[in-house]
């Protein structure tokens, strides 16, 4: 499950680049969606219907919290994968997981 840890530099509670929970989530998202674009809402809804790494990585995150997390870590590399915002829809922002 994703947890917020205080930043040792500023005391903030954002996710760090080396956060193992974020790395696991990004890896699970990339494995699940491949090169398809997705919204946080779609991902959370789909995870409810499946079992495995994606559902376990999302834990109790709702779409809003997942979207905020994705915004915080956008552009950072986790295990060779980055998340990029590519647009928006009525469901919120649209994201793409890309292998670097």
Describe, in plain words, how this protein is organized in 3D.
It is a single chain. The model is unreliable at 7-13 (pLDDT under 50). It is built from four helices and three strands, in the order H-E-H-H-H-E-E. It starts with 19 loop residues before the first helix and ends with a strand. It has 100 residues and is α+β, with helices and mostly antiparallel strands. The chain has a three-stranded antiparallel sheet.
Query: What is the spatial order of strands in the main beta sheet?
Result: 1-3-2
Model regions low in confidence, pLDDT < 50 over at least 5 residues: 7-13
Secondary structure: helix percent: 40-55%
The run of helices and strands is HEHHHEE
Secondary-structure map with pairings?
Layout: H1 20-33, E1 38-39, H2 40-49, H3 53-58, H4 63-73, E2 81-89, E3 92-99
Antiparallel strand pairs: 1-3, 2-3
Which terms summarize this structure?
alpha+beta; 3 strands; 100 residues; three-stranded antiparallel beta sheet
């Amino acid at each position: 499950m994703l947890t917020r840890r205080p930043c040792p530099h500023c005391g903030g509670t954002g996710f760090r680049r080396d956060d193992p929970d974020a790395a696991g989530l990004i890896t699970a998202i990339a494995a699940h969606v491949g090169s398809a674009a997705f919204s946080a809402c779609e991902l959370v809804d789909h995870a409810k219907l499946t079992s495995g790494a994606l559902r376990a990585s999302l834990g109790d995150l709702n779409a809003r919290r997942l979207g905020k997390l994705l915004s915080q870590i956008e552009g950072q590399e986790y295990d060779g994968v980055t998340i990029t915002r590519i647009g928006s829809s009525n469901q919120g922002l649209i994201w793409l997981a890309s292998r670097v």
